Amino acid sequence: MSGVYWVGSDPVTATREDSSDERRDRLLAHAAVTLRQLSGVLDPLGARFAERGFSLYLVGGSVRDAVLSRLGSDLDFTTDARPEQVQAILRGWAEHTWDTGIAYGTVSAVRDGQHIEITTFRADTYDQVSRNPEVRFGDTLDEDLIRRDFTINAMAVRIGADGAQEFLDPLDGMKDLLAGIIDTPAAPETSFTDDPLRMLRAVRFVSQLGFVPAPRVVVAITEMVDAIGRITVERVAAELDKLILGDHPVDGVDALVETGLAERVLPEIPGMKLAIDEHHQHKDVYWHSLTVLQQAVDLEEADPDLILRWAALLHDIGKPATRRHEPDGGVSFHHHEVVGAKMVRKRMKALKYPKSVVEDVANLVFLHLRFHGYDEGRWTDSAVRRYVTDAGELLPRLHKLVRADCTTRNKRRAARLQGNYDDLERRIAELAAQEDLQRVRPDLDGNAIMELLDIPAGPIVGRAWRFLKELRLDRGPLDRDEAEAALLEWWSREKPSG
């Protein structure tokens, strides 16, 4: 196995005129700098393994991300030491260790803020029924690397006893990384048969890295999509979340659809290709939804927002089921937000998403059209209060979703829609300065209601409370005398006779 020693390399900014060798050298130099910053962890760890006669290699996504200057706090290693020997080596050095993955040869640890996973060389075989391998420990690094999912994850860095670091790339992963290609070390049919989850990982890397699958990978996924049924819905959902949170989610979603995987795991998305958007007949609802997703991403203020991104992608999934051709030749999708919210709940529950995620995404889908009844300030204060109250904690996300949903190419119409929403946000701010819009509650609580009406706890108290909340939304805050007078008037009409 050939290697490149990179100690002492210095990074230089790459240019378009660089040859592939020059780009490779510069990326390796950047990676060397990145890893030297971790020498406080890497050097003593490498020394401990070497002292006991074992080799240690940084591997997989850790090497890929170091080369791409995006390495986080997770470090993956492989070694010829067996798990029990790894535990002994880490004892007294790691701050904490875990053996939850020891059946698969993995020992986890933490040191100086770095989460470390060390796995014994593997040469697994698969039953091709589930994705669970029959764990078999290997003896060589080459044997371990060739079983990995993609060539860009099959590069390694030997961590020497003296601080030296040697880059090892027997499967030409760097070539694919430079080309932005997602390819498998073995034939993709073999790789995906062993573990069908790798098909989803391929499109996930489209989103995360901006790479494209090799043609043979696309062909294999397209022909083998049914095998994704071997994967648990929890694992599918985890990959979908990573895809939606990537730097290039639109490309990832489109790859999911084009390979046919979406038909198996999220069929509502390709289903949107059947409907033409009534406002934008130059493109279908599918591409409109991808545009909204990208515009929602552009409106994020800090970290990627999982709830907002899912809501942006799924906000119009109710359109195919509600499409109607009107007599004037137009197309309508009446109540698609209601149908869409129900579809979101059904699909995300089937994927076993947490209830809070399901409800947040579904509520945003349900509310995304509400603003379109607002026209140049004609909403009453009551309508504004209800908009804020119905959105609750989702209001900041709803603001972004509504703005992202404006994809018209008509500049005047786009400016009018955005201006109207500016006006709505101004009115929300003005009302919020006068009253607590985020906590609109009746002006009397349950105890006060029971005392005033001289009734025990029960359903009637709830009805009275809801009446007062509706009154609060309509009229704004009331003083106690006004609230009591209104409640007594209501009670005179609603009080059971006899």
From TrEMBL:
The keyword Cytoplasm does not apply. This is Poly(A) polymerase. Keywords: Coiled coil, Magnesium, Metal-binding, Nucleotide-binding, Nucleotidyltransferase, Transferase, tRNA processing. Residues 414-441 form a coiled coil. Its cofactor is Mg(2+). Residues 285-401 form the HD domain. Residues 1-21 are annotated as: Disordered. It holds the Pfam family PolyA_pol_RNAbd. Gene3D superfamilies: Beta Polymerase, domain 2, cca-adding enzyme, domain 2. It comes from Williamsia maris. SMART domains: HDc (SM00471). CDD domains: HDc (cd00077), NT_ClassII-CCAase (cd05398). InterPro entries: Bact_CCA-adding_enz_type3_sf, HD/PDEase_dom, HD_domain, HDIG_dom, NT_sf, PolA_pol_head_dom, PolyA_RNA-bd, tRNA_adenylyltransferase.
